[in-house]
Amino acid sequence: MTLDTIVTGARRIERHRDWPRFAVGADAWQEAAGLLARDELTLLSVWGETDRVHMALLQAESPRVVVLSLECPDHRYPSIGAVHPAAIRLERAMRDLFKLDPVGLRDIRPWLNHGRWTDEPPPAYGFLPVEGEGLHQIPVGPVHAGIIEPGHFRFTADGETIVRLEQRLGYVHKGIDTLLHGATLPHALRIAGRTSGDSTVAYAFGFCRAVEAALNITAPPRGAALRGVMAEMERIANHVGDFGAVCNDAAFSLMMAHCAVLREEVLRCADACFGHRLMMDRIAVGGVNADLDGIGISRIRHLIALLRARLPPLVTLFEETASLQDRTVGAGIVHRDLACRFGAGGYVGRASGRDFDTRRDLAYPPYDGLQFTVPMLPEGDVNARIWIRIREVEQSLSMLEQLLASLPAGVACTPVEDMSSGSGEGIALIEAFRGDVLVWLRINDGRIERCHLRDASWFQWPLLEAAIEGNIVADFPLCNKSFNCSYSGHDL
Amino acid sequence: MFNTLLQGLRKPLTEPKPSDDPELAALGATLDKVARRKLGRSLSIREVDAGSCNGCELEIQALNNAFYDLERYGLRFVASPRHADVLLVTGPVVKNMREALERTWRATPDPKWVVAVGDCAVDGHVFANSYAVTGGVSAVVPVDLVIRGCPPSPTHLLRGLLTLLQK
């Protein structure tokens, strides 16, 4: 059984672009789940509608994406999570939001629904039982000590050593799926761009590419190139900030001080060039709404030169500080098989030897015209996740140079005629700094009928639970920061 | 490492103090005038994310970088509400965070002030009217000052916070 045999004979849904969607029966659905369980395919997402469920699959060799859809008028469908753990949290969330029951899933505790959306008193949440002599539990959150997002971590420790971490997320659930339902495209774009503020460019990029796929629009070359400029500036700002912040959690605050200055330089450059420090609402359906003039180009060139001059000494400092290496090397290891099974993207996957980057493997403009390499390391520890970030910043700087050197002339945005009347279905995958973001949507008469946004964090959070096992409690902030998963992007 | 340390000392990066804005000064008047006398130039801030997209958190964190260097104004972030004078609340206050925010507020000793940061914290912004959102900080705890923006820039945040220290 392969993906080809599953889709052969299945009905292909019209007006679903750029990757195909097939309507399948329960048997084919379960066979696909079986392929996931045997690691022959990678799960990109599972999402629901009123009486239908979808799964997006990635075939790693000769990369392609396929969406399978199963009608479930009785609101029940065969669980993927029952055989493939990467789907468990997505299915629990679907059950909360769409009342779709995953048949066969053992863990059916609510996930995003904390019982606080009605006036009824919230039910108690049952954490997984832990057995063993002399174990103690440490509950942390939802309000954390730093200026960070809320979430709950339940540690079970044997002395200093963590024997289990259980996460409880959903504290920043805003109801994005419902807010998007019926929204006009410009309004939906503003919401999508606020799914996870640190990836606002990536989400707007992904949302617009999905809309453009659905309505069969192509952004002009200049618009595509400028999207790339913004996306890489966002990546650099986040990676440089993380580099400092991870070191800070290993009690090396000097690095944080320097990296925070570099991050600020990137944000100021973004503000000067595009009119917003985080470049929020700058990508539009059909292109971008903030063009770059000659002064802007020289500003970004100056930023590239600045980072090229000031980052290497910090990297050398990182390499040569034994006390720092002592904390990062060998801490919080994610094994390759687990990274592959969960389809972990971004630096979490690539630091554990999962060789995948949508910019290269499912290339979209402007990346199909750029020269770059995808850094990879096998170790899977905190150290490797730092190094992937450093190497990716170097690649991003090179990409920025290439984009500026051959910035196409012409308009930055193409006018979209059927913005308020078009219909269709679109899917897009975009490489955010954290990993691949998936956007799937259906537009009906210019309004969003259903839009699903899947952050890279969905497949990274569970790996943090695995990575922390056997580490000491005091190393948790360090490991956590090296993942830097999004709460908001996950909680929706 | 020594050279890197020295480099940071040679060239200060801090910004000049942002100028007074009459509009913001007027907002500051809504705060208790005793604040300055009771607290002097020492104000401890506890940040609470009540459902933000994390954009506001990024800009609040930026206040600690060497350009803005918040602590030179006598303002600092603390890890516990029990050490705080000010709660800096972001996000539309989602229902899943309502109790956590209320408990954080109750754990903060009097006198205390609440600053709602970002457009979401004011009225829910793009997340208003969701089944999962209460609709702004003032729907849950009393708000003394509002700093708008999506997200507000560090300079804007700094101006807002300084009004807390001006009589």
How would you summarize the topology of this molecule?
The complex is a heterodimer of chains A (492) and B (167).
Chain A: H1 3-7, E1 11-12, E2 16-17, E3 21-24, H2 26-37, E4 42-49, E5 52-59, E6 64-71, E7 76-78, H3 88-98, E8 101-103, E9 136-140, E10 152-158, E11 161-168, H4 176-180, H5 185-192, H6 200-215, H7 221-248, H8 253-274, E12 283-284, E13 287-288, H9 294-320, H10 322-328, H11 336-341, H12 346-350, H13 358-361, H14 382-405, E14 424-432, E15 435-444, E16 447-454, H15 461-468, H16 476-483, H17 488-491
Parallel strand pairs in A: 2-14, 3-6, 7-8
Antiparallel strand pairs in A: 1-3, 4-5, 5-6, 9-10, 10-11, 12-13, 14-15, 15-16
Chain B: H1 2-10, H2 22-28, H3 34-39, E1 43-49, H4 55-62, E2 75-77, E3 86-90, H5 95-107, E4 113-117, H6 119-123, E5 145-147, H7 154-165
Helix pairs in contact in B: 2-7
Low-confidence stretches of chain B: 24-35
What coarse outline of chain A follows from CA principal-axis ratios? globular
Largest interface: A-B, 51 and 49 residues
pLDDT averaged over residues of chain B: 83
Output the number of helix runs of chain B. 7
Category from helices, strands and their pairing of chain A = alpha+beta
Report the sheet with the most strands of chain A, covering strand number, pairing sense and barrel closure: 5 strands, mixed
Rg over alpha carbons of chain A: 22 Å
Tell how many strands the DSSP assignment of chain A holds.
16
